[in-house]
Inverse folding.
């Protein structure tokens, strides 16, 4: 059987779903291809467990999701705004401190902490009502290029013909491999250990982060109520210990973090942390012949800034902007794809350099380096211009979907 579409999105994660929904809303005929189509998740009322995987979504992500009628479809009672951020260095005698708040950035919130299931549930609901989307269950086996199309051979023998392939299939992207796009890859020799906790004191919407030198980076993100989500970017040996020890021991570790004000901790169900390997992946190109990469298929960064998912949403926003402004042009045209790549190049490079540089700077235990980085944090905290610039980068204001570029 032959299937025809304007655009084929390969990947069924958050970014793949958002891509399919956005482009279908823009009037394209979209095929969403995934090995397993997601099933409806039970309601939050019947599943009070808090997701261990959460995202700190910025203003670009919220704006895109709002335009797709997804943001308001989420359970707002399970979304926590980040009103302020407090960062502390690792010098025990004179630690560097850096603070941001929504008031200083002139916004209602710096970010919003959203659970993976809450976001997926809203996306699935929006997709179920969207017209112009053909849901295809299966795996792509081969890509064949013709002059004006790409043919996708599926593992069941079906053939899909499309003008543009969007690779949204994650860090180990099959689409990226078919595009023969070279990558730079490096393991950070760390894992992100994640778990959720209740705390005896209110967090007041503050996301807290500690740079602990050789012990990695600890972030406590606000959840609704007196709850927080832990993301501990820990060296492998420490990550293994954190995963093996009791919940009480991990709570004890958090309770003695320098200057923490949350009181005592208790791990929330399922009371077993998860760990995810951390790595840097730089794709040498976001595009190939009738192929565009988005999300982790295009770039993977260290989570210390919490911007990985936001980069993916900004990819979708940029691609949507380019394709929406050129509806009379073949959506797989190389000039259009080059516009998308140019729009995203600076934002992605800046985040890669920033997160990788901070990782390198704070992973060193040399006394002169420790002294320098903590002094630098104190200096930046006293210069409003620099703080506001950093805040705008995190908010996503460096990219505007209304920006235009000659075609």
């Amino acid at each position: 059987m032959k299937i025809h579409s304007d655009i084929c999105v390969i990947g069924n994660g958050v970014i793949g779903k958002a891509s399919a929904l956005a482009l279908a809303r823009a009037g394209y005929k979209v095929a969403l291809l995934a090995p397993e189509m997601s099933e409806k998740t039970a309601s939050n009322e019947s599943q009070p467990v808090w997701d261990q995987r959460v995202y700190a979504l910025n203003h670009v992500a919220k704006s895109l999701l709002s335009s797709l009628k997804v943001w308001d479809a989420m359970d707002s009672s399970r979304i926590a705004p980040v009103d302020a951020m407090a960062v502390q260095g690792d010098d025990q005698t004179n630690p560097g401190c850096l603070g941001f708040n929504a008031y200083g950035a002139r916004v209602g919130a710096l970010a919003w902490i959203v659970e993976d299931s809450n976001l997926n549930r809203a996306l699935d609901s929006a997709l179920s009502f969207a017209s112009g989307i053909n849901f295809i269950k299966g795996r792509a086996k081969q890509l064949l290029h013709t002059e004006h199309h790409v043919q996708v051979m599926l593992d069941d023998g079906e053939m899909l013909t499309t003008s543009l392939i969007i690779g949204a299939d994650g860090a180990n992207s099959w689409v990226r491999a078919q595009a023969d796009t070279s990558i730079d890859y490096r393991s950070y020799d760390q894992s992100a250990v994640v778990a959720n906790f209740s705390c005896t004191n209110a967090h007041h919407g503050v996301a807290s982060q500690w740079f602990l030198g050789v012990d990695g980076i600890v972030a406590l993100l606000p959840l609704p109520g007196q709850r927080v989500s832990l993301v501990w970017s820990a060296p492998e040996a420490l990550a293994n210990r954190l995963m093996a020890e009791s919940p009480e021991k991990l709570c004890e570790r958090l309770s003695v973090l320098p200057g923490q004000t949350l009181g005592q901790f208790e791990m929330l169900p399922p009371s077993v942390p998860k760990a995810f390997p951390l790595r840097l992946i730089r794709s040498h190109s976001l595009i190939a012949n009738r192929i565009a990469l988005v999300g982790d298929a295009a770039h993977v960064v260290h989570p210390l800034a919490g911007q990985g998912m936001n980069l993916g949403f900004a990819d979708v926003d940029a691609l949507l902007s380019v394709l929406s402004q050129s509806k009379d042009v073949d959506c797989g045209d190389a000039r259009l794809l080059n516009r998308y790549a140019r729009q995203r190049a600076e934002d992605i490079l800046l985040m890669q350099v920033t997160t990788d540089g901070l990782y390198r700077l704070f992973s060193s235990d040399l006394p002169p380096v420790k002294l320098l980085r903590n002094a630098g944090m104190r200096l930046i905290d006293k210069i409003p211009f620099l703080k506001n610039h950093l805040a705008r980068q995190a908010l996503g204001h460096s990219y505007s979907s209304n920006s235009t570029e000659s075609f």
User: Anything to note?
Assistant: DSSP finds eleven helices and 20 strands in the chain. The first strand starts at residue 2 and ends at 10. The CA atoms of residues 149 and 163 lie 5 Å apart. The chain has one domain: 2-40+51-185+278-395.
